[in-house]
């Protein structure tokens, strides 16, 4: 699923921003070298689009309304992201007064901005163009017109067609971040108006703890019934890329930020641990303590190589002369449960993910003493993210639910917690 908000006229948005900073239409018109009627019309257009007034007009000036202040904060972040990206690409460092880059609205239109974002979605351009009612050719023409205005190559020409280069991908990522600020700005206005038509996009990892996430989502929807919540499941590096590109707002699950990912932050919500799982009535459930040699003779269902859970499964048999073949590989929880319930297959799961099935009496935790990994679970967000009130409410629901669940004890900030590999 691809979603990208419409981008208003960038010149109009800049006029609104400058009025907010300078406190008047006449000041803004002088600052931007344009007429007062043009500035007044720009404000009217933006206010008509969002459906609420941004400014209050009085004899002493033009001042933002309460919702206008929040809207202007998002517009500031929108332009800060775009202007910083432009300065980076044009090689004009901050503080170089004699080398100030042109304003972004003088180089790119909203149509070109959207076109660059879409044409950098490699392998999906035709699909997205069709959903937007456009042709891929028209999107590439628009993106390349921006390329010419910028004076920087954004695409490499290949036999398969234009492929975004490093600069193109960088600008597309920053443009996508900026557009997300516009989406949140509109959402906050709608929330204030009582329509609450804001969408939260939550990335969730396998074995994150679907029972906790479902309960937190249920509580949130009770308080914000008209707000949309989209849950996106995926493997860690795919979701991390989506987070960096502002396709999702947060990741819920195991905290495993790589050292190079310096643009994201993590919040620990609870600790979790691994446990061995089989169906009720499985022969291994009758043992007082299950050992690696006991497990070696059974078929396993495992996730893909390189994941923390797969690494831990392989470690179980590192010193064993006989090892399972690991012929069943899937990360689908539905498939894992079906295999466990209808065969003697075993696997490794997190206690938080297993909670509901154990309570229902359909799966059983095997008695095992050698699993001592402690997993930190929580949320990962962009370091520069400014959540809306709805996002904060959702996070509060997650904190409340996971705090009460206490799967393996709340993390002690002063303790030495050994992470799973």
UniProtKB/TrEMBL annotation:
PROSITE patterns from the UniProt entry: HTH_LYSR
Pinpoint the HTH lysR-type domain residues: 8-65, 112-165
Entry-linked Gene3D superfamilies: 3.40.190.290, Winged helix-like DNA-binding domain superfamily/Winged helix DNA-binding domain (1.10.10.10)
Q: Which GO terms describe its molecular function?
A: DNA-binding transcription factor activity; transcription cis-regulatory region binding
> Which residue ranges traverse the bilayer?
none
This protein's UniProt keywords: DNA-binding, Transcription, Transcription regulation
Output the Pfam families linked to this UniProt entry: HTH_1, LysR_substrate
Under the heading SUPFAM superfamilies, the entry gives:
Periplasmic binding protein-like II, Winged helix' DNA-binding domain
Family to which this protein belongs: Belongs to the LysR transcriptional regulatory family.
Question: This chain belongs to which protein, by name?
Answer: DNA-binding transcriptional LysR family regulator
Which organism is this entry from? Paracoccus pantotrophus
């Amino acid at each position: 699923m691809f979603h990208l908000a419409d981008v208003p006229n960038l010149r109009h948005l800049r006029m609104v921003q400058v009025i907010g900073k300078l406190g008047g239409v006449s000041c803004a018109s002088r600052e931007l070298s344009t007429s007062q009627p043009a500035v007044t019309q720009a404000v009217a257009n933006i206010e008509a689009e969002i459906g609420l007034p941004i400014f209050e007009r009085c004899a002493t000036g033009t001042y933002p309304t309460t919702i206008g202040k929040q809207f202007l904060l998002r517009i500031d972040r929108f332009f800060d992201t775009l202007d910083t990206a432009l300065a980076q690409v044009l090689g004009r460092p901050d503080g170089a007064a004699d080398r100030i880059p042109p304003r972004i609205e003088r180089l790119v239109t909203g149509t070109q901005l959207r076109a660059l974002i879409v044409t950098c979605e490699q392998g999906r351009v035709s699909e997205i163009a069709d959903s937007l009612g456009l042709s891929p050719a028209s999107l590439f023409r628009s993106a390349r017109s921006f390329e010419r205005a910028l004076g920087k190559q954004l695409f490499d020409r290949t036999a398969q067609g234009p492929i975004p280069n490093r600069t193109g991908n960088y600008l597309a990522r920053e443009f996508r971040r900026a557009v997300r600020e516009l989406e949140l700005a509109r959402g906050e206005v709608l929330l204030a108006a009582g329509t609450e038509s804001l969408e939260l996009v939550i990335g969730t990892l396998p074995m994150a703890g679907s029972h906790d996430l479902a309960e937190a989502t249920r509580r949130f929807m009770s308080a914000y019934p008209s707000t949309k919540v989209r849950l996106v499941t995926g493997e860690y590096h795919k979701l991390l890329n989506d987070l960096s590109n502002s396709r999702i707002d947060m990741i819920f699950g195991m905290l495993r930020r790589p050292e190079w990912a310096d643009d994201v932050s993590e919040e620990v919500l609870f600790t979790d641990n691994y446990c061995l799982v089989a169906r009720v009535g499985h022969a291994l459930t009758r043992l007082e303590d299950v050992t690696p040699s006991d497990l070696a003779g059974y078929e396993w269902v495992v996730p893909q190589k390189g994941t923390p859970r797969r690494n831990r499964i392989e470690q179980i048999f590192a010193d064993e002369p006989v090892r399972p073949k690991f012929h069943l590989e899937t990360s689908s929880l539905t498939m894992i449960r079906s295999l466990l319930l209808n065969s003697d297959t075993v696997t490794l799961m997190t206690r938080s993910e297993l909670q509901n099935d154990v309570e229902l009496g359909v799966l059983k935790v095997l008695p095992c003493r050698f699993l001592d990994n402690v997993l930190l679970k929580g949320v990962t967000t962009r370091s520069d993210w400014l959540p809306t009130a709805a996002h904060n409410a959702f996070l509060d629901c997650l904190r409340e639910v996971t705090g009460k669940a206490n799967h393996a004890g709340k993390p002690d900030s002063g303790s030495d917690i050994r992470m799973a590999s």
